């Protein structure tokens, strides 16, 4: 399974267990968007720089697993 195919619960588990990083997950999703967006046309705007900056800032304290919210890194904007 590719990182971009992960559901929220599985992505959370992998992040929490430090099996993947926020940057890896974000890069995988951005890569998938780059490959499929022209055909799917699902996004009004894609901001890779902002997404990567937020992934980098989504650090958490590994000694406190509760500090990583299930939806950390998931972003949705409404007009």
- Regarding quaternary structure, how should these chains be classified? single chain
Largest sheet: none
* Whole-number mean pLDDT: 82
Which percent bin holds the helix content? Answer: 40-55%
List SSEs in N-to-C order: HHH
User: Would you count the extended β strands for me?
Assistant: 0
Radius of gyration: 13 Å
Fraction in beta strands: under 5%
SS field, number of helical segments: 3
Q: Which structural class fits the helix and strand makeup? A: mainly alpha
Please give a quick description of this structure:
With 79 residues, the protein is mainly α. The chain has three helices and no strands.
Per-chain topology:
Blueprint: H1 8-16, H2 22-40, H3 48-57
Give an overview in words.
The chain is an all-alpha fold and 79 residues long. The chain is built from three helices and no strands. It has helices at 8-16, 22-40, 48-57. Helix 2 (22-40) packs antiparallel against helix 3. The termini are far apart. The relative contact order is 0.19. The model has no long low-confidence stretch (mean pLDDT 82).
Features:
globular, 0% strand, mainly alpha, 79 residues, 48% helix, 3 helices, single chain
């Amino acid at each position: 399974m590719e990182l971009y195919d992960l559901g929220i619960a599985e992505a959370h588990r992998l992040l929490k267990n430090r099996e993947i990083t926020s940057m890896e997950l974000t890069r995988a999703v951005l890569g998938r968007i780059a490959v499929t967006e022209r055909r799917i046309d699902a996004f009004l705007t894609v901001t890779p720089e902002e997404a990567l900056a937020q992934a980098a800032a989504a650090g958490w304290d590994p000694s406190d697993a509760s500090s990583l919210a299930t939806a950390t890194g998931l972003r949705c904007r409404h007009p």
